[in-house]
């Protein structure tokens, strides 16, 4: 299938290493791959633990709370399905720390480094659900 000019670019949701992340999003959850033997969070997700060498991993549900790590406002349109301006964000999960995920916000919202962010699930209607991140209303620090 060839994507039309106005179709969003979609993640591969059935990849063996990352499918659990997308399946969790479809349930309205954020999940990170974790080593069952030593507890190491495997991000980017992978089948084998880079800490202990084990291959017994699972998808651990974590709170959908994060802090804004970085962002950029995109002003130059490069794809018809992504009208400008929009803001690409990188957040770091509050728990477990060190896990950074990307997201998208429409427009040019007022943002501040380290501000609290919460997950919002964007259902694209074809079985794909994207975890997106938005500022927590009323929480400035
Ligand atoms: Zn391990």
What does this structure look like?
This protein is mainly beta and 141 residues long. It folds into two domains: 11-62, no CATH class; 63-136. 6% of the residues lie in helices and 37% in strands. Strand 6 and strand 7 form a beta hairpin. The protein starts with 18 loop residues before the first helix and ends in a 6-residue tail after the last strand. Bound molecules: zinc ion.
Please sum up the structure shown.
This protein has 141 residues and is mainly beta. It has one helix at 19-26; strands at 30-35, 57-62, 65-74, 86-93, 100-106, 116-123, 129-135.
Classify the beta-strand content into a percent band. Answer: 35-45%
Give the number of helices: 1
Bound molecules: zinc ion
Number of domains: 2
Low-confidence stretches: none
Annotate the secondary structure layout.
Layout: H1 19-26, E1 30-35, E2 57-62, E3 65-74, E4 86-93, E5 100-106, E6 116-123, E7 129-135
Antiparallel strand pairs: 1-2, 3-4, 3-6, 4-5, 6-7
The chain binds zinc ion (ZN).
Features:
single chain; 141 residues; mainly beta; 2 domains; five-stranded antiparallel sheet; two-stranded antiparallel sheet; 1 helix; 7 strands; binds zinc ion
């Amino acid at each position: 299938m060839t994507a039309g000019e106005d179709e969003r670019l979609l993640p591969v949701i059935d990849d063996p290493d990352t499918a659990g992340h997308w399946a969790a999003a479809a349930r309205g959850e954020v999940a990170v791959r974790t080593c069952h033997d030593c507890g190491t969070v495997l991000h980017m997700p992978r089948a084998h633990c880079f800490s202990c060498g084990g291959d017994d991993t699972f998808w651990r549900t974590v709170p959908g709370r994060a802090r804004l790590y970085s962002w950029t406002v995109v002003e130059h349109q490069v794809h018809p399905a992504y009208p400008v301006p929009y803001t690409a964000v990188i957040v770091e999960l509050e728990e477990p720390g060190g896990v950074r995920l990307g997201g998208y916000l429409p427009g040019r919202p007022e943002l501040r480094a380290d501000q609290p962010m919460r997950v919002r699930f964007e259902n694209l209607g074809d079985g794909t659900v994207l975890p997106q991140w938005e500022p927590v209303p009323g929480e400035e620090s």
